[in-house]
Amino acid sequence: MKVLLISPKIPPIGGMSTWTKYILDESAKTGRADIIIVDTAVRWRAVWHNTPIIRFFGGSFQALKNIFSAFFKMLRKSPHVLHICSTAGPGSLRDIIILQIACTMRIPSIIHYHTGRLIYDRKDNGLDWKLARNAMKLATTIAVFTKAELDFITEDLPEKHVIIVPNSIDLTEIEELINSEY
Prior knowledge:
Layout: E1 2-7, H1 15-30, E2 34-39, H2 52-77, E3 81-86, H3 92-104, E4 109-113, H4 118-124, H5 127-138, E5 141-144, H6 147-156, E6 161-164, H7 171-179
Parallel strand pairs: 1-2, 1-3, 3-4, 4-5, 5-6
Helix pairs in contact: 2-3, 3-5, 4-5
């Protein structure tokens, strides 16, 4: 199975990029999936340089780069499924465009939220929630971390398939820590 994965790779180290590393490593070991990646990692600025102006202009450029990369990979590689890792927020606009392309090409999709902010965005009912909700409407499946997220999304979008995908851990790293001497 060919999977087009839209997600950041390390560096920088973070929750989504670490999850991506685990998925790529496991796929390489088992050979069950051919993962085609669009690396969405932001490397052009330091993590702490996130003023609104930098985020708007730099984020817009990054989003366009990711959209074009995803589009061309969908055309050339013909993936069986699209998997977008997202933190919601303004990045949902990028997610909507990529999901719309996938819908047009009849590629099933998963939007996988790596954030706890959805509940708060829904309460605020602002632009971030409206964008995330539109992305969810386009996706075939929605993946979240918690039962609370699953419950409110299922209530809001009962026609959607929503699943829980907890944050992953690498058990070999835990074992190494346990066996190491400090």
